[in-house]
From TrEMBL:
Main location class: cytoplasm
Protein name: ATP phosphoribosyltransferase
Localization (cell): Cytoplasm
Domain of life the protein comes from: Bacteria
Pfam families, sorted: HisG
Domain ATP phosphoribosyltransferase catalytic: 54-203
Protein EC: 2.4.2.17
GO molecular function: ATP binding; ATP phosphoribosyltransferase activity
PANTHER family in alphabetical order: ATP PHOSPHORIBOSYLTRANSFERASE (PTHR21403:SF8), ATP PHOSPHORIBOSYLTRANSFERASE ATP-PRTASE (PTHR21403)
Domain comment as written in the entry: Lacks the C-terminal regulatory region which is replaced by HisZ.
Function: Catalyzes the condensation of ATP and 5-phosphoribose 1-diphosphate to form N'-(5'-phosphoribosyl)-ATP (PR-ATP). Has a crucial role in the pathway because the rate of histidine biosynthesis seems to be controlled primarily by regulation of HisG enzymatic activity.
Reactions catalysed according to its record: 1-(5-phospho-beta-D-ribosyl)-ATP + diphosphate = 5-phospho-alpha-D-ribose 1-diphosphate + ATP
Length: 211
């Protein structure tokens, strides 16, 4: 029997949308229903194995070849850009990176700014491109409170509906880029197992059919 294609999914909101997308592409993912707290699933026909992991760990599993394929947000890929091929924009989990702060923030103030973010690479690349030297403060979550408590002048963070910013009295000053979920693949698995490319092509075809 051939080895199953192992796919690392980002646990949570994205996982559900990804499975819906795979189902639309013609793959039977019914075995993923009623999953309780399980984290590894194998399809009854033995063709697929799904791993449910945290977003940042998707790239790790794919890079190490434990997973052949991964589905993860572009936000994570921008922070961890090495060791895989990015194959498809799945058009789900769409949001954006933005610079946000309290209304009195002045983006044109030349004083060296402190920028809090869960995404230090994205934040520093954005300000570097503007030739602005800033201090980046790495935060693990609830970044929105950093400007309220004067830990930082502004934040670089994900904006989806804008609700979190609004409820904390922050506004967007600059848009950085669009984010969406991407399908990534392990480099050597892509070369050695033709079934992986067939799977990716079938997902891509289904995305194109819906345009
Ligand atoms: C992200 C982001 C914002 C929020 C934006 O956090 O860091 O806090 O979503 O969404 P909104 O514009 O729809 O309000 P997430 O929910 O991923 O949680 P995390 O802080 O644990 O990463």
């Amino acid at each position: 029997m051939t080895k199953p294609i192992t796919i690392a999914l980002t646990k949570g909101r994205l996982e559900k949308q990804t499975l819906e997308l795979f189902a639309k592409a013609g793959f039977d993912v019914a075995f993923m229903q009623d999953k309780k707290r399980k984290l590894i699933f194998e399809s009854p026909d033995g063709k697929f194995r799904f791993l449910l992991v945290k977003a940042v760990d998707v790239t790790t599993y794919v890079r190490h070849g434990v997973a052949d394929i991964g589905v993860v947000g572009k936000d994570i890929l921008l922070e961890h850009p090495e060791g895989y091929y990015e194959m498809l924009d799945l058009g789900i989990g769409v949001c954006r990176f933005a610079v946000a702060s309290t209304p009195n923030y002045d983006p044109n103030n030349h004083r060296r700014k402190r920028i809090a973010s869960k995404y230090p690479t994205v934040a520093s690349q954005f300000f570097q491109a503007k030739k602005e030297d800033v201090e980046i403060i790495k935060i693990e979550g609830s970044v929105e409170i950093a400007p309220l408590l004067s830990l930082a002048d502004a934040i670089v963070d994900i904006v989806e509906t804008g609700t979190t910013l609004k409820e904390n009295g922050l506004i967007v000053f600059e848009d950085i880029c669009r984010i969406s979920a991407r399908l990534i693949v392990n480099k050597s698995a892509l070369k050695s197992n033709p079934a992986i490319l067939t799977f990716i092509n079938q997902v891509e075809q289904s995305l194109e059919d819906r345009l």
